[in-house]
Every structure is written in structure tokens, then in C-alpha cells.
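User: quick one, fold this
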Amino acid sequence: MKKQKKNICILSKDLVAGGAEKQALMLAKTLNEYHNIYVIVFKNIIHHRNLRYIEENNIPIKVLNGSLFFNLFALFKALKAYHTDVLISYLFKGNVLCGVIGFLAGVKVRIGGVRNAFLKPHKEIFERVMHNHFNTYTIFNNLSGAALYSRRKFNKEKIVVIPNCIISPALIERKDDKIVEILTVGRFVPQKDYLTALKSISLVVKKGINNIHYTIIGWGELKDTIRSWIVELQLEQYVSIVINPTNILDYYKRATIYLSTSLFEGISNTIMEAMSYSLPCVVTDVGDNSRLVKNELNGFILKMKDADGIADALQTLILNFDMRDAYGRNSYQIISQEYSVERFTNEYLKIIDNA
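Assistant:
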């Protein structure tokens, strides 16, 4: 007998150009083949790439655009009107809304989401309350966070780990170009520790390796600070900052090495994207990075703030095309096999269909 379709709402505070927001839309697209899906956005902030994705994939969406109290009531009414069976949320504010408003609206299955291996103390308290008393499950996209918070009085029985997925393009064959292009994509926030990244680039240059260029793509509060660091380290001719380009995938295609110096992560969408574009990766050992990047197989894993070690790893890859090529192919194989859309979809369907 064919299973009856369920009415599923995916709730997001907004749809800025972040990894969680992208995963929310990918989930909406893939689940729409099996159930009745709609997306509710609590604030009318939608990045142009996400808007294009919504339009291209005909994802039903409702944008709430009023005051806080108006939006809370509108969310309640929408959940009732759509006879919502399952409510899935992403990130802190969404989890609170999912637990409280979802409960009040009579939604049977309420699924929160934690996308980082580190939560600020006040957020941890609220997440624990939502997880233990309001939400049916919490999906962690990383094993490190799930393990940590299961030891911090989060109900273990309600924790589910489903890693992010990625759609891989065709394997990219790279040439041994004269200029080695190093790339980082991420918000300009303290978490990403761009100062260590720039110090590492400076150390590489000081070793007499001048055939490099480092591109930082993103947006955020530290934009001017990062520019000042570039000047202080005399890296103007080696480093470029690009703010929210429309052709971000072209930068992955042109890149030679991917660099991430984060202080904490869940599972990194940008590292996954880099791997899908056949890039060797130099990353810090935070979150689930070591599950993505296998040391000396598809890149290097270094300690946080280890500018010297990161510089040495970059130098090794810069000077060895065959290693870069092999590591890039290994990145592609790992991401294609272990983080496919099919696996991602099936894990969510298990929860939804058995709820």
C-alpha cells in the first residue's frame, strides 16, 4: 500500500547565504518528491542565490513580514491551516519556534536542528529545554556536537545525526598552473579566524614562495578588520576579498587549494563544496573536519591557530602538483560516496515515515 503523504513545514529564521539555509532548501526540494512540503521564513531576508534556487525548483514558500507578535501568530495560523504533520527547523531561533509554536499548533512531530559543535551557554540552555521537553527529535549535522551534548544532559534517545549533503559536479581535471590559487569561503566573523589564515599566507610568502594568490569570499562584521590585517601583513598583492559574488562556484573551479582556519564548526558546508570541486584541503581540527579531511589522504589537519603548521602544509601542496592532484581526486571520491543527496534524503525519510 502506498504511504499517505504528510504535510511537512521547514522553518527558517531567514534565508541568508549560509550553509544551514542552503541545506534547508535542499531538504525541501528532495522531500517534495515524497511528501507535501512548504517552507516558512520568519524574516523577509532571502539571498539572491536562494531565491533563484526556490524559483528553479518550485519550492512552496510563505514569507512572514510583520512584527514579532504578528509573525508568531501568523506562524501558528499557517501551521494549523496546512494541517502540518511534521515541523523541521534549522538553527537556534527556529528550534525555539518549532518547539513552542509547533506544540501550541498541535504539530505531532517537531524536529529541531543543531548545526555546530559549539553552542554559547545561553543557547545551550534553551536548546536543552527545547530538545528535552518540546521537540520530538533534534538533528545534529555533526557527530562531535552530538557526542558533546549527549554528555550535557541532552536526552540521548532524541538525538539523531544526519550529516549535510552535497551535489557533486563532474570531477575537475586541473593543470599545473603557474599561480596557485588558495581559497576560503565563509562569513567574516571571529569563528573563522581569518587572522591565522593571513598569518599563514604571510609565512609562505616569507619563505620565498611568491606564485600564490589567496581569495577570501564572504560577508560580515569583520570586513574592514580583515582588510586592515592584509595591509599590516603587507599582503595586498597576494590577497583579495570578494563580497558575496553571484558566481561563487567559478571560484571553486579556479582554485587550487582550499583553506579553513575555523575555531569551531559543525560539519563545514564550504569544505564539502571544496571537496566536491576536487580540491585538496588544509583545515583546522574542529567539529567534524577530521571526518571530511583525512590527513595526508585528501589534505592536512592542523591545530587551531597553528599558523606555522598551516603554512608548512600549504607549502607542501604548493610545491607538489602530483600531491595536489591526488588529494583533490580523493576529496571528490570521499564526498561523492559518503555525503550524497540520496543518503541525506533516506535518513530524513526514516524519521518522517516512522513518526
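User: anything notable?
Assistant: The chain has a mean pLDDT of 95.
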